[in-house]
Amino acid sequence: MQTVIPRSPLGPWLSREGVAQPGAAENCASDGTNCASDGTENDAGATSNRARTYGFGLRPGPFATDSTRVPPAPPTIRRDAAAAPYPDRAADRDRWILARRGPRPAHDLRQPHAAFVETERAANGEIVPVLTVLLTSRECPWRCLMCDLWQFTVEGNIPPGAIAGQLRAALATTAGATPRPRQLKLYNGGSFFDPRAIPPADYPAIAAQAVGFDRVIVECHPTLVGRRTLAFQDSLATQAAAANRVTPALEVAMGLETAHPGVLARLNKRLTLDGFRRAADFLREHGLALRVFILVKPPFLSEPEALEWACRSLDFAFDGGASVAVLIPPRPGNGALEALAAAGDFAPPKFATLEAALAYGVGLRRGRVFADLWDLERFADCPACFAARQERLVRTNHEQIVQAGPACPVCGSAQPAAL
Ligand code: SF4
Ligand SMILES: [Zn+2]
Predict the structure, then answer these.
(1) What is the third-level CATH fold of 25-383?
(2) What does the DSSP 8-state code read for residue 24?
(3) pLDDT single digits (tens) 12-32
(4) 58-75, pLDDT tens digit by residue?
């Protein structure tokens, strides 16, 4: 079931977010954007500073989500820039990635990109309707190698009132959805707690509209998890109390991407595993749930390495307290991945790798593990068995039991029972 708000002719919204690491200006983008753009302390640092100040300890930890999917965007590759090799120096990577971008479409801040209802298995095992709203927001200050979300954002700051208005529009459009959505995902193509993207002044109005949902899920770079996260949590409680309703649980989705330290560094997320742990600890110590996005096959890894590191990343996510992990196959579309592919440094994962990673994660029984099924046809390597294997992934997502299937008579593939 899917209700889509018609909107700008945009394409894919890889519902993902990224992770960055605490600390300093290096975490911020090359456009001069300060990650702590409200003029206060950097929340990355704030994560640790708060811990010291208030006595809680720390550690760290889209997109996408298992459920974010909108039609693919047109290619935006700058062919003339494709030949230069990906830089070894972190300082050169932003420029390399930006040089491969195409033009940014115009956007209307009065409307979200899309809103749709899907189903997802909740922590108690129920299959519940979830309303996902893809907010039109300010571009993320990071420049991750595999990210194409900038195409669905604007360059300037977001004025107060715009995001709350977009949510109002989404809720009006999906008001008739039955059964009524129980959870609300607010994804903005960046970080919900980036004050230039989601003005904190909007928190009360957003929270007031979220009251009535069991759970609110937002995405955020680990560096920006901190005091604004707590402020939004407070807003949810305040608005729920005013309405005499139960406070929605708050869940924060963070992109780990990979637990491979070297590859993580090359993804240009300005994130370390320690930084991810600190943010994850912060969430846990404040009673906030953690959802983790994991790339099934990031650039620079072979197929066997990709599976091994997807499994290690699942271990890392659950060690950090995740209640949900989402396995996302990277999809070309931002120009940079196409350039890496041409150089032999990137290829999408095989369908079997996604299946095997999901089987491993589900078999851990440490939390829910979902495969991101958006645009899965891209990864179909055998037309004879694709539909049946896709259906098995859907059932595995819902039942959290690996779905066995007969070997394909054409390619011989069979869903692994477990790793
Ligand atoms: S560029 Fe921003 S939105 Fe994209 S993956 Fe990185 S942190 Fe997330
Ligand atoms: Zn087959």
Answers:
(1) TIM Barrel (3.20.20)
(2) S
(3) 222 232 222 223 333 333 333
(4) 112 222 233 333 444 444
